Every structure is written in C-alpha cells, then in structure tokens.
Amino acid sequence: MKRRSLVLQLLQAGRKTMLSAEGGRLRFWGIGLATCLLALALSGLALAHATYEGREIRGAARAPQMLSESQRSEAVALWSWGTDDVDGRQHAVVYIEPLTSDAPLPPGLTRWPEPGEAVLSPALLKAGEREGIRTRYGTLAGTIGVEGLEAPEERFAYIRPRAKLLDKQDMHPVAAFGLRRDGIASLGESMSISDFSVFGAGLAGFTLLPAAGLVVAAVRIGSAAREKRLALFEALGAGMGSRMVFTVGEVVVPALLGLAGAAVVISPSLVTDIPFPWVDFTLSVQDARRAVPWLAAAGVAAFVVLAMAAVLLHPRRLAVGSTRPASRVQRQRPWLPWLFPFAMLFAVRGSELAGDDLRLPVYALGVAGVLATLPSVVAALTGWSGGQVARVGGKLGRPGMLVAGRRMAAQTRVTARFVAAVIVMIGLAAQAQLWTGLLGESAANAMTTRDRIGTSLVTISPYSEVRERIREFTAALPSDAGLLLARQTTPSGNGDETLAITGSCAALKSIGLSCAGGGPAMDGKSRDARIAELLRWTGGGTDNQVVAQEGRVDGAKPMAGESLTLLAVSLSGDDMSVPRLKEAARAHLGMRASAEPLGNSWLMGATDLAASGAWVRLLGLIGACLTVLAIGFTALAEFLRFGREAAPLSVLAGGNGIFGSIAAWTLLAPTLVAAVLGSVISLWLTAPITVGGRQPVPDSLYLVLAAGASMSAVLLCLWGWRSTTRLSASWRPVGD
Question: How far apart are CA 553 and CA 467, in angstroms?
Fold first, then answer.
C-alpha cells in the first residue's frame, strides 16, 4: 500500500511540476502535439496496411474460378479482361457472358448486363464523363457496388459484348467468382500501384521519422530545469525507479491529450469514406473499421514511445554526489563531420557501381547518410567561425558579436540539431521532385511524339479480317478522318524493315505520300512528321523505306513475317477525337478493339508515375510540416532558455540591440549556410538518378528552396530578437 501511495504521489508531483517549471507550458503543448502526430503517423501505417489487405480481399472475391478447356461444358459463364484508358490513365475492362440463367454474379453487380450493355464503377463514370464513357462500351446499365471494387475510387468496367462481336474462343470458362488456387487475384487497380512495402517505407520516411524528431524536440524542452529537478531528487535519495515515475508523471497528461486529439482526427474514417487531397484516393470505411485493433495499438505505442523518450533522453548525468548543473558547453563529436564525405561518395558513386537490383537501396542509404551527417558539417563550420566572430567582436568592441561567437563555438551540438531540420526539408523536397519528375526514355519520347503530331495519327487494333466490320467502322469515322492500312515486313535478305501503306488517295496525300503506287515515298527530312513518328514507334529507323499504294484497306490477309495495323489519319492535320474513335472501334471492329495515339502505353506509364508522385508530394508536405514544427519547438525552447541567461546583458550593454546581433549570428548565419549547402548537396545527389542526361529536378527549385529557407531564417531571427527582448524587460536582479 505504501509503495502504491508513493507511486501515485510521484505521478501527481510530476504532473503538477510540468506547467510550473521553466518552459513548462511550451513543453506541455509540445509533448501533446508530438504524441498526437506520432499516433497519427503510426495510425497511417495501420490504415495503409488495412487498405492493402482490403484490396486483396475484394480483389479475390471478384476473381474468376477458371476451368480448363476440357471442363468448358461445366462453365456457367465466360470471362476475359483487357485494358483501356481515360484521360491518360489506364483501367481494367472485364468482358463477361453468362451461359446459364442461374449463373452467379460478380460482386458489385445486381444483374447480368444484356448484350451490348456495360456496368462501370462510379469513379470511372465520373472521370470519363467528358470523353463520352457512358456510351463507349455500349449502353450504360448501372454502376458497380463498393463490394465489387478494390477501392472506392477504382476505375473498373464490366462489359457484355454485342452478340455479333462476341468472341467466345477468346474468353475463358469460369465456374464461379471467388479466388481459388488457380484464380486471378491481381486484376484492376492493384496492377498499377506499388506494393505495401514500398508505400509503407515512404510513409515511414516522410511522416514517422519527422514525428519521432518532434518527439525528441518536445521532451528535451526545458532540459536545464529538468536537470536541476532530477539532481535535487538524487540528492534527496531518490532511486532510478522514482525518477522514472516522476518523469512519466510529467508527460502523462499532455500525452493523453495528444492521443485524444489523434482519436478525434481518426474517428471520421470509422464513420464514412474519407477522400484525400491532391491524390485520387478515398479511404474505405470498411478498411478503417477492420484496422481498429491496430489503431488502438498505434495509440498505445505512441504513448510508450513518448514515455520512454522522456525517461531515456534525460539531461547529462551528473558527477556522483554533485548537484551542480552540467556544463552548457555542448560540442559535437569531432569525428562526425568526417563521415559526410564518405556518405556523399557512397550515394553518388556507390549507386553507379551497384547492380540494378541494389542501385536504389544503395542510393537511398547514401542519401540518408548525407542528410544525417551534413548538419554536423554546418555545425563544425559555424563553430569554427564562432571563434573568429568572437575575436573580431572583441577587437571592434561589439558585445553582440563577442557573445554570439563564443556561444556558436560552445554550442555546436545545438547548432547541428537546429540546422538539421532545414537540411532535411530541402533534401525531402528535392528527392520528392526527383522521383516524381523522373521519366523513362520511352515515356519522354512518347511525350515528344505527342507534342509533334498530337492525335492527328491514331493506330486502330486489332485488324479485323471481316470486311463488313471495317466498312462499318470506316462509315463511322468523322468526316475529316481517313483510314489507312500499314503492312510492315522484314525482308529475308537484310534486317531492314519496309513499311507499305495502302489507302485512299486523299488519306495518302494528307501525310505526304504519293498515290502513284509502287515507288518509295519521300524519305529523310522531307517526310511528313507523322510518317517519321510512325517509323519510330513501329520498331524501324526513321530512315527506313516506306512504300505507298492507293487501294482498299479491308479484306487484307497478312503474309508470313507481316503485321497489319489500321491507321486513322486527320485529312487536315488537326487533332482527332480519340474517345470517339475508341467508341467507333468497339462498336464495329471487335469487343477488344481500341484506338490509341503513338506511344500511348508509355504515356499511361508516365501518368501512373505522376499519380505516385502525387503521393510523394503529399507525404513530403506532411514531413516538411512536421520538420518545421520540430525546428520551431527546438528554437523556441532554446531562446526561452538563452533569453533568461542573456537578460542581464541588456543592462551591461546599455540596450537591447545586443539581442538582435546575437540572434543574427546564432540563428540567421547557420540557417543561411545550411540553406546554401543543403541546396548544393541536393543538386549533386540527383546526378546519379538521371535518364539520358536529363535533369529531372529544375535548378529553379533549389533557388526557391534556398530562398524559402533564408526567408524563414530571417523571420526566426526577428522572432528570437523579440523573445529575448521581452524576457530582458521582465528581468530583475535578485538581492541577497
């Protein structure tokens, strides 16, 4: 009973001491905010895991149970899948055909669509409204329910082909829906998103690590006053356990308030679907509810981490039997800055020497090492310059320079912690832009092709050998469009490819080809841009031979070593409506027919990369905000402490101008050095990750980052000057 009473008394004493101690209110709210954000970061990991798990569950529920060809007579439906795109973003299209009246429905459907009908997901219907998605696949028969979608914003379509276009031989027999060992699980949105390990690593790096940094900054606020209290406890005979209980008592109330704030933020996701800003994603309420146990565990883990940080990150240990506060000299370890060049070399050269499988992990490890050691380099530079500043200040009789220089030389570890946030912010922003702006060579070529010819030439595939279908498709073309047949062959004598183009004379002339037939078309620089781009994307060189001939495009038969492709060309050279061509192709050529600009598959890959980049930018913004909070709390706590120590200087110096000088040298100067070095180093770090010599991060970004950090430094300097001035005004000498 006495032991329990002592524990309660220590907890209560710690709780009461929190607000009354030096910097107590700042530490109180800092710990509460840090606990809240750490809990939210851990909850984000839990929700991400639940979302991926929910995708797998719903994806497995709609996966077909395949039958072999020998079991085709037992099938209840036919199933096949393909892809299409809306606004440059790819989505899955599933073709279905019931064979029995009681065939089980795929999840999300209330009835089997009739021939020529389609059922679309709400997100696909909304995204494709401007492209006429309602009629692209036939008559709209409704929308897919949430139980049939991997995520609320998934773009997905079920299509029952028209009877005359139904190709049963190209469809698989199925017995039911629901994943079995031989089923297809990865279908739909899961095919174009990264694995949880990749996303989880990014989430942890951009949110969890900065949140942990904020925890460290928060628990260390008022460390000098805590040092005195713990020294007094030790002098009174308190053991290690008693000091730990007292420390936990200090943080328990703000930590619980932080957990309550996190619960308030998370609770709406348990009631309804939550859309995320800037990214095309909506958190499913079903997934959030399934993650409730993990969310509770995240809250407990955040509290435990905060309590452990408060206990373990104690002030410097005192000598045995001493109650004197520890020295204010906090120089960093001298060997730490020397690790920076090795980390830089490892990041720049190590990734080039590593194999393809290890290149990115090696690069990421090197970047982390650079960002971890660069603050110590800045601190070493400012510490060395501090002695010079103090020497100059002494000679010139400027007390502000003298005090600031000596403080810079003595507090290099404080400077390292202070500028670390600036450097990490710049590094995160540069890396986010790097990976979102990095495209492969083929995607870059596809963008070049789009800029040159737009959609004035569109490929139609596959080629139908049914004459009537091509005639109907030709009749459905816009008045400004012509149809050509491209026959690509590879002669046996050499490896040169020949492209033979057949069509009407008007269509041939629109792309600069002769109607005479038999002879070679224009080559080299005199060629039409559309012919040059077509040769580029059909696998041959732009100087390969092209033969033009006036003739029919229907009824052609491919010979050995030949491939046939239909080309829709604009007679005027203007862009054509690709959605209209897609709809006409699916209505007349075949259930899988499609119309695509040249290089469209690579452009869709670039769009997927841009979608991933949106996540990087969102997480990077969150990480930057958390880093700003960490630096703000650290700087505020440092100035509250230093302001009290430096208050008598206003009397000795005869005014408050000394505080402005101290703030400029100890805050502004290190931050400017960190901004410049951080920008330059980040520029060098992007060198190993380039394609074709292109720099994915514009130089203007570094100027913006450096300017933003410099502006923040100026504001912080003015704020520090104001804080110390106010503290000096309230200082009074204490008599005996």
Answer: 9
Coil vs helix vs strand at 387: helix
- The enclosing H or E element of 315 equals none
Indicate if the alpha-carbon torsion angle 225, 231, 236, 240 is positive or negative: positive
Tell me the two tokens of residue 633. Answer: 């709390």
User: Span 278-303, mean pLDDT?
Assistant: 92
C-alpha to C-alpha distance for 248 and 258, rounded to whole angstroms: 15
Q: Tokens for 132, please give them.
A: 């006429």
In angstroms, the CA 250 to CA 260 distance is 17
Give CA–CA dist 182/66, Å, rounded. 7
Helix, strand, or coil (residue 64): strand
CA pair distance 276, 580, nearest whole angstrom: 32
Q: Give me the phi and psi of 354, to 5 degrees please.
A: -75, 160
> 3-class SS at 521?
coil
For the entire predicted model, the pTM comes to 0.76
pLDDT digits (tens, 9 = 90+) for 644-699: 666 666 656 656 677 777 777 777 778 787 778 777 887 777 766 654 445 555 66
Residue type, 632: G
Q: Is 396 helix (H, G, I), strand (E, B) or coil?
A: helix
State how far the alpha carbon of 539 is from the alpha carbons of 490, 505, 520, 535, 542, in Å.
Answer: 11, 26, 19, 7, 9
Summarize the confidence of residues 475-495 as an average pLDDT: 78
For residue 268 the two structure tokens come to: 């709406």
Is the C-alpha dihedral spanning 551, 553, 556, 561 positive or negative? positive
CB 34 within 8 Å of CB 313 = no
pLDDT of residue 604: 77
Specify whether the CB–CB gap between 608 and 90 falls below 8 A: yes
Average pLDDT, the chain: 79
Are 66 and 118 a contacting pair, CB within 8 Å?
no
Dihedral (CA of 290, 295, 297, 298) sign: positive
- The encoded tokens of residue 293 equal 């146990």
Report which DSSP code applies to 482.
Answer: E
Which residue has tokens 């920076």?
340
Q: Do the Cβ atoms of 415 and 332 come closer than 8 Å?
A: no
Burial class (CB in 10 A: 0-12, 13-18, 19+), 140: middle
Can you read off the two tokens belonging to residue 586? 């699916």
Asked which of 47-61, 362-376, 527-541, 639-653 is least confident by mean pLDDT, the reply is 639-653
Rounded Cα–Cα distance for residues 64 and 286 (Å):
23
709-734: pLDDT as tens digits: 677 677 767 776 776 777 666 666 65
Count of C-beta atoms within a 10 Å radius of residue 53: 14
| CB under 8 A, 24+ apart: contacts of 363-368 | 363/688, 363/689, 367/427, 367/431, 367/685
Amino acid at position 662, single letter: I
Q: Is 37 helix (H, G, I), strand (E, B) or coil?
A: helix
DSSP alpha helices (H): ranges in 572-668?
Answer: 578-588, 600-646, 649-653, 657-663
Q: Quick check: helix, strand or coil at residue 549?
A: strand
Where would I find the H helices in 397-466?
A: 399-410, 412-437, 441-453
163 versus 192: the higher-pLDDT residue is 163
Dihedral pair phi/psi, residue 155, rounded to 5°: -100, 120
Residue 477 φ/ψ, nearest 5 degrees:
-70, 155
Q: Which of 287, 161, 671, 619 is nearest to 429 (CA)?
A: 619
Owner of token pair 């490890």 = 365
Residue 715 Cα distances to 30, 201, 658, 719, 723, angstroms: 21, 34, 17, 6, 12
Rounded Cα–Cα distance for residues 134 and 136 (Å): 6
